[in-house]
Specification:
The protein is mainly alpha-helical and about 450 residues long. It has one domain. It has 16 helices and no strands. The two termini are about 25 Å apart.
């Protein structure tokens, strides 16, 4: 297990850095938008609540590309890795365009579900700009998946950070202006994020081309169809979880702009802290995929066990930190006393569910590495849509616990997933025969 700790950390840390880079785009937007007032912050929160759904679906659809690359890398198949990358970029372009169009078409629905009119009036352009943002995000996701799978995770992280570094000065100029020009406010934040990620994606593609990763290779019949077939249930699972998460954010709009602004602060901070379990989950997928590609099936359980222990320890620490410092963070990011009070309460609720969220995420990563996609999707959809959301609605609206009740119900759905998903992995990995019957093992 000690060897696996080192291997997972070496892979997880650069993956976390890369994921944090993408999350920091939202954090820098939040920090630089917050002085504009509660309404712009609420508009950013509403957009982010839907954006996370689309990003989750895109991530799920592209994930099999990374698993394919990891197994080919474990099998020392360089041509197979290049095929996975080329196919991944094609899939990313298609799903990025589709998700951007769907998000843009969702805008007319917002007034119909009770969102504050003053927030909608202010946030329209930001919404459409962040819809287009999904296209470069999808491309960077595919590149990062493959580079991480072949041991170039730090390269992926550096490429991702280019967008964050560029976003900061662009945000400053476009939000606040320079000289006698007063800037574009919230509109400027959207333009800055989109521009920064487009440039980062172009730089990443140029680097891949110069390194020879985009060189033509012999095609593998049916590869695209197979990866898309594996990506679809994963995309549905991520979409289900992301949509449930997003719906909580949208329902908070029924409590007014204060609840939306508080949620934006909590999710921006919590999203950064959550990058370690996401990174460990991705590293677990890669390590298990590489082990299967190399035919070393006895490594699957030690990898998963080590990852679960690491995540549990980290998320326990996060829980304590959020409970102790949530009020101070709220006070630093808002001048509205109502927003500060609501944010402080939300931090406590979100802190309590952190461990379960980390466990379910890591278990999903282990199952993805073993190419088990369909059953986890069913568990995810049932946990969040049959338990979390109805219970959140009961606590938040019927029993009148407000925004905190809504988040508490969501947390109980996360706990259910955290119990069922590890049990599934342990059942599948009892022996090779069971794994093969489940459709997870791909012989090389």
């Amino acid at each position: 297990m000690r060897n696996e700790v080192g291997a997972l950390l070496r892979l997880s840390i650069p993956i976390v850095a890369g994921l944090t880079a993408s999350t920091l785009l939202g954090v820098t937007d939040t920090i630089m938008i917050s002085p504009l007032g509660t309404l712009p912050l609420a508009a950013a929160s509403l957009t982010a609540a839907v954006l996370i759904v689309a990003q989750s679906a895109v991530y799920g659809f592209i994930t099999p590309v990374g698993i394919e690359a990891a197994q080919k890398f474990g099998f020392n198949d360089t041509q197979g890795v290049r095929r996975a990358l080329r196919q991944g970029l094609l899939m990313a372009a298609c799903v990025g365009l589709l998700s951007a169009a769907i998000m843009a078409l969702c805008w007319p629905i917002m007034p119909l579900i009770g969102q504050p009119p003053e927030v909608l009036e202010l946030g329209k352009f930001y919404w459409f700009t962040m819809s287009a943002f999904l296209i470069p995000v999808a491309v960077l996701m595919a590149i990062s998946q493959v580079l991480s799978a072949i041991g170039r995770a730090w390269t992926a992280a550096f490429l991702s950070f280019g967008g964050v570094i560029l976003n900061i000065p662009l945000n400053y100029v476009l939000i606040w202006g320079v000289g006698s020009w007063f800037g574009l406010g919230l509109v400027g934040a959207g333009i800055a994020s989109l521009t920064a990620d487009v440039i980062a994606a172009c730089v990443a593609l140029l680097w891949l081309s110069r390194q020879g990763y985009l060189r033509r290779v012999t095609s593998e019949p049916g590869l695209g169809r197979r990866l898309a077939g594996e990506g679809l249930p994963l995309s549905l699972g991520h979409l289900g979880e992301g949509a449930a998460f997003s719906l909580v954010g949208i329902l908070l709009g029924l409590f007014g702009a204060t609840a939306l602004a508080a949620n934006q602060i909590v999710q921006s901070v919590g999203g950064v802290l959550y990058m370690l379990p996401i990174g460990v989950a991705t590293a677990t997928s890669i390590r298990i995929g590489q082990a299967i590609g190399a035919g070393e099936l006895d490594r699957r359980r030690p990898i998963a066990r080590t990852a679960l222990l690491m995540v549990t320890g980290w998320m326990s620490l996060v829980t304590v930190v959020l409970m102790l410092t949530g009020g101070k963070i709220a006070d630093a990011l808002s001048q509205d006393p109502n927003v500060i009070a609501t944010t402080t309460g939300m931090f406590i609720i979100v802190a309590i569910i952190q461990v379960a969220d980390g466990v379910q995420s890591t278990a999903l990563g282990a199952l993805r590495g073993a190419r088990d996609f369909n059953w986890p999707t069913g568990v995810t959809l049932a946990s969040y849509w049959l338990l979390a959301l109805p219970l959140g609605g009961l606590l938040g609206f019927i029993l009148d616990f407000g925004p905190l009740g809504l988040w508490a119900g969501y947390g109980l759905g996360t706990v259910l997933a955290a119990i069922l998903l590890p049990l599934r992995f342990w059942k599948l990995t009892r022996d090779k025969k069971i794994l093969y019957k489940a459709g997870c093992f791909q012989s090389m």
